[in-house]
Amino acid sequence: MKQVALHNIVRVGLVCLLGTVVLAACGPAPVERKQTAKKTCAQCHPELVAEYQSGIVHQPVEENDCEACHLPHGLIPTVLLRQPLPAVCLPCHADFQQVSEQPSVHKPVAAGNCDACHAPHNSEFNNLLSAAEDQLCFDCHDAELFNRATVHEPVSEGCGTCHDAHAADHDGLLISAGQELCASCHDVAANAFSQAHEGYPVTSGCIDCHAQHSSSDPGLLREVVHEPVRSGDCDDCHSVNGAEIGLQSFQGGLCLSCHEDTPGASEHDPVREGGCPSCHAPHASEYAGMLSEPPTSVCLKCHEQGQIIRGIAHEPAAQGACLDCHGGHAGAGDALLKAEAPGLCFECHERDVYADTPQVHQPAKEGLCLECHSSHESPYKGLLVDRESKVCFSCHNETMREKGLFSQHRPFARG
Length: 415
Prior knowledge:
Blueprint: H1 2-26, H2 41-44, H3 46-51, E1 56-57, H4 59-62, E2 104-105, H5 107-110, E3 122-123, H6 133-136, E4 150-151, H7 153-157, E5 167-168, H8 178-183, H9 191-196, E6 214-215, E7 224-225, H10 227-231, E8 238-241, E9 244-247, H11 269-272, E10 284-285, H12 295-298, E11 312-313, H13 315-318, H14 351-354, H15 362-365, H16 369-372, E12 377-378, H17 388-393, H18 397-401, H19 410-414
Antiparallel strand pairs: 1-3, 2-5, 4-6, 7-10, 8-9, 11-12
């Protein structure tokens, strides 16, 4: 019986196998798949190929090698670069890989913003610049400082005459040390050079007196010139011993031999110590008062105030306008203030708005501005010296006790 059953199973299996073979033989023949060639970027974007072939063309573009810089389809729409700037540029421009280690680096280079100056595909200007060289620099640098009445000849020849566009071993991106650079055009050993400097053996310190780019002065002197320099009376301050230029010696200090009007009350430390060069240039300057640096930075060399604004800043502090409130040499009161509060505060903040009103806050009426407000910066709104609730409750003790009551006005509860 078992043998009959097994025989039947085998018979059914053979019939099924035979049927499968017959069906396979009767079916359609398999389709042979043809391998299609991968399309290039240029085949899909012929309009861009045409647009990018004019003028000076970036080598990968010229070779239709778009994928040297781009992913063929992008990670997400519009994100097509293989790597972010500047990493995508460095495999070809390997000489820039260590540029950040040089002493002076152009700001766009340090930030990796190659496209701030260069076009990625093609340009009508050399070195794939995105604009003419004599205009491109002025996208960031104030053109007015380069176009005054007297223009230094190298400026007319182009910034690259003195500066490296990317990085340099010398301050200001100069292609050589400052004095060497000036001497490459100006013969400092010539008799005419000495005569132009009142017979003094001047061989260095050119920018102590002269503007590097342009000036309203025919001799390229800086905008604010010390009177002895302007009149050619160098002997007022200097003496010459052979090839050495020294300073005259005066009792009480060289500067005070002329500047006798320096006030004596609440003196600034450099004034008291005779350290005038701490703030002032000795010969000429681009800034009012012959400051050696911009007013926004000269104070911050010594005073740690305002370099990093944390929260809200008083407008003069934010703008670096320290001298709006403080005297440079001396002041009428503490901290070299030009006047005491509230008089000083009311020079900007109208008294009839803050103090002379029918319902005036008592500290404002009494001119105690600094009881509640910080003078330079604060993490709290309104330049408050502390959290609003803490400032108010420092005087209003009775009101503070109401904070413990069950039912409170919502603004009061929030402090």
